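# nightly structure sweep
# worker-07 picked up a monomer target from the shared queue
# config: single-sequence mode, recycle default, output format = structure tokens
# input follows
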Amino acid sequence: MRFSKLIFILLLLGLISGCCKKEQTIESKFNGTWKLDKFESLDNNSGKWYYDSAFTGWTGYIIYDERGHMGVEITPKGYKDFNANKNLDSLSNEGLKELVKFYRTNWVYFADYKITGNTIEHKRLSATEPKDWGTILTRDFEFKNDTLILIPHESMGGKKSRLWWVKM
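# output follows
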């Protein structure tokens, strides 16, 4: 009788522990697709973050898997509506420069990532800029509910920025 009670209790504990929600790993929190919500910049004088209207209309997606791979694309306002069917032979030298400059605003790369504490490193495997292949970008991160906040260590346009990404 005692043996059967012991077996019953052990089975019950096994079922209860199997039903409990398991703690998420940091990698599993990153896992999935995220849509760019907003850019913020740091005001060096006040030390406060503010919505950076220079990035109004920018869009982007970032995807992480749990195996250490990621991809990102960020495009400026109007990028998807840009007329890419221009005849290159008909463009002037200035027109060609303008076209190349515009295409460079499309920021894309694929990378392996590594998490250490509250920092994530993206080691770029490929990028729209060939000179960026193999380079490492470092970001601090935090999660707020369904939002991932990434803070690049490098400045963007001379400003310290943070990007808010919402889980899709």
